[in-house]
Amino acid sequence: MTVDQPHYKTSDEVDFVIVGSGAAGGILAKELSTNGFRVVVLEQGPYLTETDFTHNEIEIMAQDKLTNHPKLQPTTFRKTPDEKAKPQRAVVYGRCVGGTSVHFTANFWRFHEIDFIERSKVGPVAGTGLMDWPITYADLEPYYTKVEWEIGVSGLAGASPFDPPRSKPYPMPPLPVKSSGVIFERAARKLGWHPFPAPMAILSQARAGRSACVNCGFCLGFGCEVGAKSSSLVAAIRVAERTGRCEIRPNSYVHRIETDANGRATGAVYFDEKRNTHLQKAKAIVVCANGAETPRLLLLSASKQFPGGLANSSGLVGKYLMLNSGGVVTGQFEHPLNDYKGYAVSRVLHDFYELDPQKVGFYGGGGLDARFDFTPISFAFGGLPPGTPRWGKDFKAALAQDFSRTMEIFCHGTSLPVENNSFSIDPDVKDAWGLPALRLTYKDHPDDLKLGNWMFARAHELFEAAGAKKHWGFPAAESQFAVHLLGTCRMGNDPKTSVINSDHRTHDVKNLFLCDGSSLVTSGRGQPTMTIEALAFRAADRITALAKNGEIRQDRGDCQTTRKSYKDGSPCGLGCGLETSTKSEAAPTFISQNLSANGQAADNAPTGCSSREENRLGFSVSRAARGKRHPISNRLTVSKGFNRQLPSREGQVLPA
Ligand SMILES: Cc1cc2nc3c(=O)[nH]c(=O)nc-3n(C[C@H](O)[C@H](O)[C@H](O)COP(=O)(O)OP(=O)(O)OC[C@H]3O[C@@H](n4cnc5c(N)ncnc54)[C@H](O)[C@@H]3O)c2cc1C
Ligand code: SF4
């Protein structure tokens, strides 16, 4: 923690509780608190900072200092729903403030236009629920740019002929090329392909009080000791803290979202460090716990009113999980590359992003990257070619010779949304808090495996063209382990085939929002985090707009004074004459404002009238309510377009 934070009481009804402080949660915390809201972030993991990060491979890789711990939070795996799941490590994610963005590789690709409209373009794919997004690349483009400039991404605009359109260049030049990048680039050009500098969420230049990358070489899996990796921790949460409105509450393991009799979320129930239980009250909740834990939390929040789990009327919470197909081919060279120095990836190619299913015989597409992401110990376990002695002096000699002469090509690709592929809760296994464990059910769609093998063949071709002494890899195998956790509460217009709408609001619970990897509709071609973060920036804008329009505190059709719902469109009976229809866009939302002469909302609404809080936050109401007086408070209602000043970013005043 770098600045004094507010300490809200759990009984304070804050504006937003955010569950999870990872890639998406950190950005929502930053944006919502900067927009003037009071925010509590409940994060199950500890609050670690640069001084806590080390290069200790045992602590990080074997003892899970930064990640979910398999003993405390065990997971189970099965291939199909007919099988009984077996306990095994099935998922890895960052379990600390900043989430998985603290320890990830930081390979940062935008999705392309095709990723949002692929179902329309290729048609249905048998055995899948492939569908288009309710938003397009163009809708998300400004937010991709925001991620690049506000979070910090290095890269070279226009370097790839396959790049989607962009409104601005990258804020920083690419990181220096590594030996693996030089080899990759030369060989790819020989083959007529189009390599380009990898866009990375790592600073190539000092920026916003953060250091540029010092090439420490312990990047994938490790926290950055100089703040150069653009995690939510350094790039978003610290900004949120500086607003003085955002409290980050670490070691807070949320296990239930509470709802009231009207089916509205009222708060989040969590265990603190000592395993005491608390309920943090909030007007609205945004769950950003990732594609595994978000569905688990919704399923754990089942109640009489929501017997199948919260926000699960579609039955799709946890389903259509996509992991991104992928794999690795490793190559060895005669001469030293010393690629262990520095960050992981410096060159990428996207020539195979959009493969033609008619030509290749399967659906999908992907990208290749050049990297070395081993540490000394992980290299000893997995970096040597098959057949190398694993013990004694020959093993030592192989390590000494090959550590500096090895590089990898990673293949990243689509995975298809298959309904049975899912995260759910295990009926038998429990975690250390007594909660049902996370269960992974996954069997790759045959096209995902075909794509994997097709991409491997390209990686081998590239190593041949590069003159590698040896190159080896293993055929694509069925996944039993998840790192990219996507699609389990997907976005869509139809409540029957999706869990959230394009505002990230759940179809079933109006003040419950979900934003993280679970929101994705398709998997892209790997590297989903740029898109997750762009969605988080967009979600924050959408949620802020809904709050300002008075559409979060109550359902359309709910009278704020009587607190009753009038779904049939009839007047509420109090005589204000404002309809409570849920059907019309122009339906009033019944938030009344007492206006002073200059148009500012005065804070003298009667005690107990729910308009008080909204007034303070600057919420307004819809056009249909304009100019009418509420029967009880006798206050004028204002419209969306009312030209009023709202308290906003960094204490400035912006037009509403
Ligand atoms: C080793 C590794 C390398 C990766 N490399 C890349 C890469 O190069 N490029 C890329 O694009 N992606 C990469 N990824 C994936 C990327 O990190 C994730 O896609 C991204 O962080 C997901 O963001 P999120 O907001 O969905 O969730 P996370 O970032 O996982 O954040 C979720 C947060 O919620 C917290 N949480 C969960 N449940 C609860 C609960 N019940 N109560 C309170 N808090 C809770 C978690 O502790 C965590 O902090 C990598 C992942 C791994 C594991
Ligand atoms: S390689 Fe660079 S970005 Fe990665 S952890 Fe080291 S200093 Fe940080």
Describe the structure.
With 656 residues, the chain is of the alpha+beta class. The chain folds into three domains: 1-70 and 92-104 and 109-152 and 231-324 and 487-588, FAD/NAD(P)-binding domain (3-Layer(bba) Sandwich), CATH 3.50.50.60; 158-203 and 325-413 and 443-481, 2-Layer Sandwich (Cholesterol Oxidase, domain 2); 591-640, no CATH class. 22% of the residues lie in helices and 16% in strands. It contains 13 helices and 21 strands. The protein has helices at 23-34, 57-62, 114-122, 137-152, 179-190, 232-242, 290-300, 357-360, 376-382, 392-402, 446-466, 529-548, 611-617; strands at 14-19, 39-42, 75-78, 86-87, 195-197, 246-249, 253-259, 265-271, 277-287, 325-332, 345-349, 366-371, 406-413, 422-430, 436-441, 470-473, 512-514, 594-595, 601-602, 645-647, 653-655. The strands form five sheets. Strands 1, 2, 6, 7, 8, 9 and 17 form a seven-stranded mixed β-sheet that branches. A six-stranded antiparallel β-sheet has the order 5-11-12-13-10-16, covered by helices on one side. A four-stranded mixed β-sheet has the order 4-3-15-14, with helices on one face. Bound molecules: flavin-adenine dinucleotide (FAD) and iron/sulfur cluster (SF4). The site of flavin-adenine dinucleotide (FAD) has 41 residues, from helix 1, strand 7, helix 7 and helix 12.
